[in-house]
Amino acid sequence: MTVTVVTGTDTGVGKTIAVAALAARAVAAGRRVAVVKPVQTGIGGDEPDVADATTVHRLTGVDVREFTALDEPLAPDTAARRQGTTIPAVASYADEILPLRDDHDDVIVEGAGGLLVRLDTDGGTLVDLVDALGKASPGVVVVTRAGLGTLNHTELTVGALRARGIEPAGLVIGSWPEAPGLAETCNLEDLPRVTGVPLLAVLPDGVGTLPRSDFLSSAPAWFR
């Protein structure tokens, strides 16, 4: 029973849909899955964002948990300062995540934004959470874009993980266009080549709008 941590090379790369796809693949294998979003921002105001955990549950039906929610759609530490509140140290989330293994075969943790976004008011990042999880988390899945610029962003993220002694478990392209151009086609081969990290899955653009039954039945085919 392991904990898979999912990060992105940036915000808006398809991280939440990738988490849902990982969960759906596990469900198809008959496994009990929990998805955790330690820190969610953007849930306040007149037009709040749909929480990532809500999206994952809509697509998969798996058990979802959200520990900290902040109003403004900003980096968590910025949102917390502006809201006049403090949020728990990143390492404390490990104490809430690890017991979930008792009742689930797979626990999937979604970060916020990119790898080094500060998730608490003490400067803790997702890398610090991976450290706190210890051997329970064998690696990190990196969700990346398909198009031009993704090689640089992905190599930087992979390099930051390796600098902390964490070997990425794999890459996921979060949104593959219906009509890919030259850059996307080349990146399909170049991403694993330049990073030395296997490409686990390629998610078609728009699959986050599928009904749950279609998402669950289709997801396993997106993995390599």
Number of helices: 8
CATH class: Alpha Beta
Strand order of the largest sheet: 3-2-4-1-5-6-7
Number of domains: 1
CATH fold call:
Rossmann fold
Give the helix level as a range of percent.
25-40%
| N- to C-terminal distance | 22 Å
Number of strands: 7
Q: Which structural class do you get from the secondary structure elements? A: alpha/beta
Shape: globular
Give the amount of beta strand, in percent: 15-25%
Task: Give the rounded overall mean pLDDT.
Answer: 94
User: At CATH's second level, what is the architecture?
Assistant: 3-Layer(aba) Sandwich
Q: Radius of gyration, Cα only, in angstroms?
A: 17 Å
pLDDT < 50 stretches? none
N to C succession of SSEs: EHEHEHHEHEHEHEH
Structure in words:
The chain has 224 residues and is of the alpha/beta class. The protein has one domain: P-loop containing nucleotide triphosphate hydrolases (Rossmann fold), CATH 3.40.50.300. It has eight helices and seven strands. A seven-stranded parallel beta sheet has the order 3-2-4-1-5-6-7, sandwiched between helices. Strand 6, helix 7 and strand 7 form a beta-alpha-beta unit. It starts with a strand and ends in a 6-residue tail after the last helix. Its EC number is 6.3.3.3. Homodimer. This is ATP-dependent dethiobiotin synthetase BioD. Pfam families: AAA_26 (PF13500). GO terms for molecular function: ATP binding; dethiobiotin synthase activity; magnesium ion binding.
